Amino acid sequence: MDLNFLDFEQPIAELEAKIDELRYLGDDAEINIAEEINRLRAKSRNLTKSIFANLTPWQVAQIARHPQRPYTLDYLPLLFTDFQELHGDRMYADDLAIVGGPARLDGREVMVIGHQKGRDTKERVRRNYGMPKPEGYRKALRLMRMAERFQLPLVTLIDTPGAYPGVGSEERNQSEAIARNLFEMAQLKVPVVSVVIGEGGSGGALAIGVCDRLLMLQYSVYSVISPEGCASILWKSADRKELAAEAMGITAERLARQRLVDEVVAEPLGGAHRDPQAMAEALKSAIVEHLGQIDGKPVDQLLEERASRLDSFGVFREA
Amino acid sequence: MTWFEKIIPSRIKTERRTRSVPEGLWIKCEACDAVLYRAELERNLHVCPKCSHHMRIDARERLKRFLDPGSASELATRVEPEDPLRFRDSKKYRDRIVAAQKATDEKDALIVMAGTLHGLEIVACAFEFRFMGGSMGSVVGEKFVRAVEHCLRHRMPLVCFAASGGARMQEGLYSLLQMAKTSSALGRLARERLPFVSVLTDPTTGGVSASLAMLGDVNVGEPRALIGFAGPRVIQQTVRETLPEGFQRSEFLLEHGALDMIVDRRDQRDRIGALLRLLMRQPPAAA
Description:
By secondary structure, chain A is α/β, with parallel strands linked by helices. Helices cover 48% and strands 15% of the residues of chain A.
């Protein structure tokens, strides 16, 4: 795979380029070359380890947005079998920034809903860069209600920069579409497991993310506003995004320390895109485990626990 | 105080006491430029008597004037903000809280009161926009939930006056999650068949609009209020075209089916009171 290296990965990129060069030379049958390549590979691994051990929140955000990062549709065949994509909100349109339908997870029938970004320019435009409009959230709501009707646990995969801010979105009441999903998900009579697989962009993410269990991939982020947005409001300059990312605490690790995340799923060395297969395997067993803990609970208990979970969010003091 | 300050006669001391400075007796209406007598404007609920322009009104004053005179008692007064992230930008969040508390004399951006409306017992809450743009953090979320809990315990309807720029960034993900927390509480209210009337006032945007404010059994707009998910500037930057006249105003939302009605502030007591009595299946208020 041609890896697309980020700025802070340049030392790794240089090493990898050297390894490639040596591999082309390899035909000259010098015995030492294979050894040299192995040595460099080990060095590259160690370098990656040390760089990835000390990522800043902004660097993590860049990995979460990596152009090669696996998206919902990449994970679906690796996590589930029998996925049947269902389209449309039955009212206005089919929003391709959200995909979903019934599938099987380890044999158990479930409903899966996820944001979907595009891989190339054409697809990115078609999927609106993973930014749903009201019809996207209403499609998701339709599938949630279907899940409830047929008693399928719900699995949602979160990966969006945010809900789309446009004229049409406002005309069709983006606010209500998001609010309605929060309202309905909070009392949906099936277990809900949500996973942030990339970017958890604000209300646009939460609108499919009210859940019994929240998982985050190691290099995913989840925030109330993008670091750029926060920086441009509070620092009056989008360039201070590094500071904003740090201040808001958007990484899985930090959110887990605040007990807002139930499990952080470790990513392969260098990020999920380096080994999507391994990533999917780890994610699958995490989802299966968490779903196993809540699947089969009496509905009243499930809803009561979800409500107290939601009620517990917040830090304040009582004078 | 230093020993020197202590010996200065009190009338020479130059302590800054902004509050004692008399406020202007006259106010210019920002819509029609009419010069208005402040006391008259206050009597008129901060609605311009000349052009009916709805100016912003403080949360506490709004609630006191909305509920029957003398009936209001405040709830959840002891819930106060913390700084879970030790957040700082150009200023510390802690300092911003203190400054906002000083400027508004409120602990945070939501005020909750129980009282009667034309004799009907209700809970009413209002966002204080002057407190960090009415932004919703942990305290606002918690107080809203307590307002709902009070309604559930005493079988009362809830009225909320929203005025907010959205979630409070300085509390990070906690603030985002208040959207889910408040919406979940409203679900409990709905299950108990207790009405929720949401009044959206100028401005209601972002995370507040995209959660509790749009979840009214009845959504009421104040005339000409700015209401939307994204702020107009963000949309303009995204679509790079000028926005239509009246875009994201109450009248636009009514036309697009997002609001049930637009009600003049001076009619809200009567209209919402009558509405709640219908939904609570109570006889009309005695005249």
